Backbone:
């Protein structure tokens, strides 16, 4: 049986790690082309979201997070440093906090990974029932 394809949604939310007076937004981050498969959107008051949808046979959300960290090493000035993570025991999703630098500017962010459930269809479940 061929490997089951899984849909993986990955998002990174980043903000400049700078102190601001009360009431002001985060500083705009320096621009850089996101890696293949990711789209980049700047927030109205600072920060940036990188998001992508990927297909493949990911055995766990933690594995996808490791792949994202590697893919983003060229977006940032090196690989993001994960400072903590929270996940589900079944590993369909994970959220990790990270620090990195973008053109020398320090950034802090959150990486989110959510795997879609496997979509295996057996011949018996695809038959129409006759009542």
Residues:
């Amino acid at each position: 049986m061929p490997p089951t394809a899984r849909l993986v949604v990955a998002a990174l939310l980043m903000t400049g790690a700078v102190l601001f007076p009360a009431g002001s937004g985060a500083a705009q981050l320096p621009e850089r082309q996101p890696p293949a498969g990711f789209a980049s959107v700047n927030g109205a008051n600072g920060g940036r979201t990188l998001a992508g949808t990927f297909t493949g046979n990911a055995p766990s959300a933690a594995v996808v997070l490791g792949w994202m960290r590697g893919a983003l090493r060229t977006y940032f000035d090196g690989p993001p440093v994960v400072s903590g993570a929270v996940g589900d025991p079944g590993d369909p999703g994970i959220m990790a906090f990270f620090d990195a630098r973008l053109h020398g500017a320090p950034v802090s962010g959150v990486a989110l990974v959510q795997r879609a459930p496997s979509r295996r269809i057996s011949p018996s479940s695809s038959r129409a029932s006759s009542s």
About this structure: Residues 1-7, 16-24, 119-131 have pLDDT under 50 and may be disordered. The chain has one domain: 6-23+39-119. The chain is about 10% helix and 40% strand.
